[in-house]
Amino acid sequence: MLPELGHFALILALLLAALQAFFGLAGPALGRDRWLAAVVPATAGQAVMVAAAFGCLIASFVRFDFSVVYVAQNSNSALPLVYRIAAVWGAHEGSLLLWIVLLACWTIAVAFGISRLPPRFAARVLGVLGLVSFGFLLFTLATSNPFLRLDPAAADGRDLNPLLQDPALAMHPPLLYTGYVGFAVAFAFAVAAMLEGRLDQTWARWTRPWTLAAWAFLTVGIALGSWWAYYELGWGGYWFWDPVENASFMPWLVGTALVHSLAVTDKRGLFKSWTLLLAIIAFSLSLLGTFLVRSGVLVSVHSFAADPARGVFILAFLVIMIGGALSLYAWRAPLLRSAAGFEFASRESFLLFNNILLVIAAATVFGGTLAPLISDTLGLGTLSVGPQYFNPTFLLPMLPLIALAAIGVHSNWKRGRIRERSRPVIVTGLISLAVSLAVVFGYYAGRPGLAPVSIALGIWLVLSSLVDPIDRLRRRLSLPRAVLGMTLAHVAVGVFVVSVTAVESYTVERDVALARGETVQVGGFDFRFDGVDALHGPNYDGVHGVVQVARNGRSIATLQPEKRRYFVQQSVMTEAAIRSQAGRDLFVALGEDLGAGRWSLRIQVRPLINYIWLAALLMALGGLLAASDRRYRTARATAAEPIGAGQGSIA
Amino acid sequence: MNRYLWPLVAFALLAIVLGVGIKNSKTKGVVASPLIGKAAPDFVLPDLRDPDRPFDSRSMRGRWYVLNVWGTWCVECRAEHAALMAAKASGKLPIVGLNWKDDSAGALGWLAQLGDPYVAVPVDADGRVAIDYGVYGAPESFLIDPRGIIVHKQIGALTDAIWESDFVARAVTP
What is the pTM of this model? Predict the structure, then answer.
């Protein structure tokens, strides 16, 4: 009964989304203001129906309803409750539903947040969001219904993919999707502004907090996925340039550019058409990410249930939404001229270069990700693009970006008076260079290359970012959350650069074969292998090794890397053992049984690796802090006044 | 040309590439099993219908047969069942149904309800034999020749047309 109710609720949600889109877009277009009153009720109704459908699917999982195909394929009678709930988004159908649920959450938040904006504009924003939701609901109902029945019911389920039986991965898709979907809000604001034919600084102020929030969620989502890859997959890495990782990274890069370009539009009324374009591209890349994962066009470790029919549907949806938005852009953007100018070394210039470099970075990732597909399309044969391409090409725009940021935070709006601020620029620069050289040659004893440069740049960005807030505090000026958030995010980027450089340049790794009682020295630590023991879990069994770690003869840790065999899917999973210390991670993964008590082991000592994720978390925190600035809330309160007076109005 | 049109043009090109990509991914198909041309792994497993009389894969030597991997939890297996029944009725190739990681009572119920197309139903309760055959999702079907060599592997549901073109045709005119 419940699955049928859920199915029915999805159909109702589809109809309500259609109404939301129709009234929200047709009302203002035809000048029928009374239609606008229907938009919010349709939005609320759609959200309730989506929530009901989601609840029904969760209930089917919780109650072991193996008469539902999706449950039978992704759950099992031995699966614990937490993972039965996480299994809801463990495969294609459910994760689409999750996408829709999160879009509904964003839409409801937007509906509350913009209730005081001009009614036509607000209706258009909700109308666009309704259209997006309609497309995804139609997609789900037409090609990926999670409520299909299995008759007769399966006696037991096939179990959730063991890779996904992990707390971090249970949370990874919801966070990532919250970010992806959040860019739909910026997209809706952009399309609504183009439909209005009017875009001014107030528009940017309305859009900024939503974009910042979406960006923050995406940051945490990506970081969590990377953290999981590191400690669960046991591959000893945190980023693999896998097509699906890239699919989430491209919207992040463009979103980062958008956050900065919105700042210029907000403060100075510039970069208008560019900001619109970035808002469209950020969301397009989110949709493209969905396309790449679902269609089976690109082969990736992430692609589950790839199905060309689904690909055709998403492509059609992509063409309608993105093609439509870009056509609107080609028509409307030429009308958005800005009269204001800026000098060369002004903050606007720095942010312009920031945008260019970020877009170049996104384009290199884009090119590398799609190159196999393009080469296949042109009949040039199969091509595989790996870190050998991505690492250097990505670094090329990134290092100048960090340097520009370290200088740019000292710049002023409009005026190019960076020379007056040259003292803090030079002082922080020299200190960072000295610290970097001391660390590289003193502590790590050489192996230079780019490492000292990028460590210096990272430290420089940290120090530079702190100059202005400290100055404000000393002069007893206020420190708004927007400034605090920006500082935090910039410091975090600096920390990120330093830690990535340390991990990439100074990790010590060894693959060894050890018999019981044998010791190997890696990175100044002694690893002694004490054999393996049997292991019994709720739905798996296996072995775990025991490795004693000592430094200078003093024992500091016992690591127990595991190798699990899951009963139902019969797959073997490696659980690496990791001991985090303040400055480094000790990492041991259990390899193969070589017979006669010997096992192969992979041992690594990775400096500063934890700071990569800590930095990502701080970036996200900075984004959320900035999004909560009072300025955006008062902007909402005053928005009831007529807008668009003066510059930027094109209607 | 209007420079604001460039994003649209770029997107149109991308859409074409993606469209061709989808078209290719349909025909490209799946990587062929490395087992093709190799000896089918031998196994002895209890038979679903009579657990006391184990099924030995070597008993199939000397004739063409199809090893079909299925389970009651497998949705596509249900979709292909009618084709299997039709294949049995045509009587050209015997089918051995490897019951993969399943509940035996449920599997017997399935065969009683939908019909039984198999000459034997070895029960692979812990999935070990399926691992030997490189199975990663049901249904999968292997065409095995009289010497016990795997000639062809079908991933996904069989249809009447696939049965005739990929299995019967290969077995009759190898």
Answer: 0.82
